[in-house]
Amino acid sequence: MDLSFKLQELRKASNLSQEELGEKLDVSRQAISKWEAGQTSPEIKKIIQLSEIFNVSTDYLLIDELENADGAQNGKGEKLKSNKKSIMISLVLSAALLVCIIAITQLNAKNQKLSSEMAATQVELISETENTAPKEYERLAKYYFDFSRENRLDYVPFFAEKEAPTESPDYLFWAFAINLDNWGDDKGIMSQSYVDEVVASHFEITGISHLSMRKAWDYDGEKYTALPQSIREKPIYILKEYSTYIQNGIQTYEVVLYNCGLSNDTIPNEEDIERIRNNAINGLTDELTLFQTEKITYRHSFNGPIFVSHVKVDDEI
Predict the structure, then answer these.
(1) Which of 77, 82, 234, 294 has its CA 20 to 30 A from that of 179?
(2) Is it the case that residue 109 has pLDDT exceeding 70?
(3) What are the structural domain ranges in the chain?
(4) CATH number at 1-111
């Protein structure tokens, strides 16, 4: 059984579409299709991820591919084939280890760089910025403006530390919105497994109760189907305060943000967003209306932020 056939069987057994598997691997549906058709093969890093997703060994995925490669080259005795196979497996495992080491090193370097940049900026600097922002604050303000939109903070449920919601309706709009551009033909449908995975990856909770959400999402025991309605435009969050600290040996970030909207209630286009971001960094917020002030506490992971808490704060812009 070659790799392409194994991928098809494992994906179907896991009840995943090509698009869903592509999302887990950060590749396109077309890439998955080509792998399963035997037109191309995944790189070593993706082989490792596939073994983790399907809970199989890399040997299981690769061993027939290695044997086929040996057989195409020569028909020598079983001992020689066995030796070659052992060498190839050793090379694959060594490459996998190297990829993991590089990935961990890059992540640590990225987190250390971000932590050092953020730690250099004190709350006093932020409160002093009115018309001209320090470079440190400017970097932070841009980062969190984009961070809030990418991670759809407007749909992150409100909860205190260690009190994350335990029922699916609190997460459904957030789970859908963070992948809004990737649903393709399945727009408006989310599998239970996807909701479980995305919630477990970004919140400190290991299991949730799956329920329908009145006037929003129908649940049939396997998937969620959205009822006809619109979804909000990406939010506008303006940085107010920032701090970071070590908790249980883990770098933790705490930010206070203004949740805002345009005063004229129009829907901003990309040019508007760029202008709003630049103006807000320089304290020019006349065109914005404050909805509320929020405090987000989170940690970084390979999959993005892990939200520790999200609470409303009494404040004024």
Answers:
(1) 294
(2) no
(3) 1-111, 120-135+234-313, 156-226
(4) 1.10.260.40
